[in-house]
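[Automated response] Your request has been received and processed.

Submitted sequence:
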Amino acid sequence: MTEVAFHFGAPDRLAYTCRLLRKGTATGARLQVRASAATLRALDAALWALGPTDFISHCDASAPDSVRVRSSVLLVDADAAVQPDFPVMVNLAADVPSGFEQFKRVIEIVSTDEQERSLARLRWKHYTERGYTITRHDLKNRADS
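Generated structure:
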């Protein structure tokens, strides 16, 4: 069964996502990030702005297969089909990804914005109604969030 985790209270959602992706790829994981087109553009810029020793190979879902196989992170528009060849999904979109159960793990990153928190509660409810146990990470009291 897919592992579902919510990371609540990220004061800077993109910065936290970059750190999470850096940690995940350091373990050899391949992750895909699902978000709106605007969020993906901002995340792409943030990933390119990381220091040279923190570089994370990434591409968008339309990249040729030769680029995708060399990338640790795939950026997927929320309106596009998910890509199960990247087994960990980081969801920055407002809704539950269709086909999320194909993934080994789904990570939901939620900022401190009240509207975003309300949408996250609906996603939480969706997962729990389907029998998924959710791991909760409260970032409010963490120095590295």
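Summary generated for your ticket: The mean pLDDT is 94. Residues 69 and 85 are 9 Å apart (CA to CA).
If you did not submit this request, please reply to this message.
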